[in-house]
Design goal:
This protein is mainly alpha-helical. It is built from ten helices and no strands. The protein folds into two domains: 8-127; 136-256, no CATH class. It has helices at 8-14, 22-46, 48-56, 67-94, 98-105, 112-156, 162-177, 191-211, 216-239, 244-256.
């Protein structure tokens, strides 16, 4: 299964109920759920190597890039809807009397279109990290290395506020993996690559500062100039972007890194 190659609208229409009856609805939900479950299984097998690489990065939930956990959640969602459809079918088939059928027919349920969109989007979202990693593995690996080095630094130097900067890294990472800052600013590097290098350089200079045997107040005086230089460099990257939305997001992100 390749998310980019599937016609999701056609898939929705393919499994639509044949008529407006509750029994036809239940059958349609079951068929769609079984199809998506099988597609999910095939996708996991076909992309096992990439999924294993993503899992090895050990990024937290804040990065929203954990495929194995996402697969489990989507499978559970598909299974739940499938079970509910089976239950509805069985109750309809076991019903005796018109009033009981009418009661079951009037049971609240979402439109098939809405249910199909929710399930299809869930499956599509699982493939997003894999498809992104195939195209931008270098960026993802660099961001993961940055994150884990920050954890190491936090253990070594008491007072270095790593969680604050990790949170900024995670928000930046989520923005990039949602499809932003990916246009190249030169022949080799995207805007995201440039920003990550600036963030890495800023982190390294902070590391050096915290390694020095300085008094706390003196160290705190030396941090703002580093922060200001970082923001100026990020502003330079932002000025090279064609998208005004991306420019503003990047500037705001750097300003919020305090």
């Amino acid at each position: 299964m390749s998310a980019a190659k599937i016609n999701w609208q056609a898939l929705n229409e393919k499994f639509a109920p044949q008529n407006n009856s509750a029994l036809s609805y239940a059958a349609a939900v079951m068929n769609l759920a079984e199809y998506l479950r099988d597609q999910l299984d095939d996708y996991e097998l076909e992309n096992a190597d990439v999924i294993a690489e993503i899992n090895s990065l050990r990024l937290t939930d804040e990065f929203n890039f954990s495929t194995p956990e996402a697969l489990s959640k989507v499978r559970a969602k598909i299974k739940k809807f499938h079970q509910q459809a089976v239950t509805l079918r069985d109750k309809l088939q076991a019903a005796e009397g018109l009033s009981k059928l009418a009661e079951l027919e009037s049971t609240p349920r979402p439109s098939f279109e809405l249910l199909a969109d929710v399930l299809i989007e869930s499956v599509r979202s699982v493939s997003a990290p894999v498809e992104f990693y195939r195209k931008h593995a270098e960026f993802v690996n660099s961001a993961a290395a940055f994150y884990h080095h920050s954890l190491y630094v936090n253990r070594q130097y008491v007072g270095y506020d790593t969680p604050r900067y990790d949170s900024s890294l995670a928000s930046f990472f989520r923005y990039v993996t949602s499809g932003h800052l990916l246009k190249k600013l030169d022949t080799n590097s995207t805007a995201a690559d440039f920003v990550l290098r600036e963030l890495n350089d800023f982190r390294n200079r902070l590391n050096e500062l915290y390694r020095k045997p300085l008094e706390s107040d003196r160290r705190e005086r030396e941090v703002p100039p580093l922060m200001e230089e970082f923001r100026l460099n990020i502003g330079g990257i932002a000025s090279a972007l064609k998208s005004s939305e991306e420019r503003q997001w990047l500037i705001d992100w750097a300003e919020n890194l305090k």
